[in-house]
Description:
This protein is of the alpha+beta class. It has 9 helices and 6 strands, in the order βββαββααβαααααα. Strands 1-2-4-3 form a 4-stranded mixed sheet, covered by helices on one side. A two-stranded antiparallel sheet has the order 5-6.
Amino acid sequence: MILSMTGFAAAAAELSGISLAVELRSVNHRFLDVTVKLPEELRMLEPQLRERLAAAQKRGKLECRVALARTPGAVGGITVDAARVRQLAAAATEIARAIPGAPPLSTGDVLRWPGVMIEASLSPGALAERVYALVDHALAELTAARAREGAKLREVLEASCADIDREVARVAPRIPVLHAAFVDRLGARLREAGLDPNEDRLKQELALFATRIDIAEELARLSTHVAEFRRVLAQGGSTGKRLDFLAQELHREANTLGSKSVDAELSQVSLELKVAIEQMREQVQNLE
């Protein structure tokens, strides 16, 4: 399965007095960059959420937003997490010892501290589990969306591979003709300059120069790279970096082919190859 780095997913749940919503957005990025945006009440869940998100994706800029809202149906009111308050008191005591002049924590400071005030009808542990479940559900939807887009991208890349094969097949049978025509033209120019192209030294130079404009090696490499490109596509998984490398190699061979061009048709083939390969490179940037 080929995965795109671009996708969106959302999940929501209504709990006892609480409304939860999760949004996941993924866009192209060279490496994996995870951003988690949480309300203050859920700030302590960030490390665990980062681990979940990082395990689900290899590359891309992945942003997770979790929203929490109190609803009119809340029952039991608001309570205070006593364990959290004791932790704050212990920390404040340590600070007072280290910095005697530091002002003490006020009641307002304690109440504003993340995790101190909790919904009495839903324990912090139960709330965390619901958040994790929503994120996992959104991740599954995000992966499915990325897989659908990846399948479309694979079709586009397969079509580009077919375009390259077609251009290679178009020029490959003409290699002997191109070679002979070039040698004939060069020999004619030598005769115009008053030189004998059949002289042994000139014949050697002509043969050596003709090998330098031989394009058989470039065409073979193009076919080999396309075959490897297809193999990586068929293998699936995290293929973006490998395919990007192969696209660069294809572009290099197309450039070399153009530099060895000896007629208009070969120059046109080189141009068509570059167009197809550039389209491949653009699409590969979207793959994980």
